[in-house]
Description:
The protein is an alpha/beta fold. The protein has helices at residues 20-33, 52-59, 86-92, 101-106, 111-123, 144-157, 181-199, 217-221, 238-254; strands spanning 8-13, 41-46, 65-69, 95-98, 127-132, 164-167, 206-209, 228-231. The two termini are 15 Å apart.
Amino acid sequence: MLKILKYMYILANWKNSLSAESSKRLAEGIYSRLLHQYLNMEIVIFPDDISLLGVRSILDSLSIVKIGAQDGPMDKTSSLTGSISASNLSKFCDYVLLGHSERRTILGETNEMVALKATEAIELGLVPVICVTKGNGTVFDPYYGIKAQLESIHDHIRRQGKYLIAYEPIDAIGTGISADTEDVKNTAETIRKMLSGIQGSSDIPVLYGGSVNAKNVSSFLSLEGIDGVLVGGESLTVDSFLKIVKKASDTQNLQ
């Protein structure tokens, strides 16, 4: 009997950590060593805007690898300083990362802004990866912040197209200390219940992001309700990132 492997998403957020040349070298390293075509897996690389075209040109022939932008426009017609244009986004990208906790906390992005960007991304034919965090949760309702973020998304896009949800605990972002797996499992389950209640479906992929590395990735990917990971610092070298990819594949085969 043929075993059906769980579909997994391995996302690499390079932030603004690399120069354009370093981004190209990293992409070339991934290209040269990603020889095995893993089944039921999609790898998405999110370089900075300056490096998008160069990285895409290197990785374009690898069907398993897609390219994403780290942010997107709120509408296709506006002219906004510092923003990537809608036409360029749709030309060079497959995915777009939205609502990352750093943009919410440091730049003040609201649920409304993230939802508008997600709507625009879907209209452009892109797949938005929408980051959510417990944020404004309370002792009585620790998931209040997540519910508000999900409801805002639904109010705008109403399942017009495919999107992913990435749960990222703020305490685990860039700290080297990942979240407790039981907390991640419970939060993923809650997110799915919320999505089912809000829009009648819970089949939207849910990912975990926060200090993911080769040592802990299997513990997250083996959780029921987690369909992938969003990797930060450990995606910045070929060795560490491809170890995560290999571990993800091993986890698929064990399930």
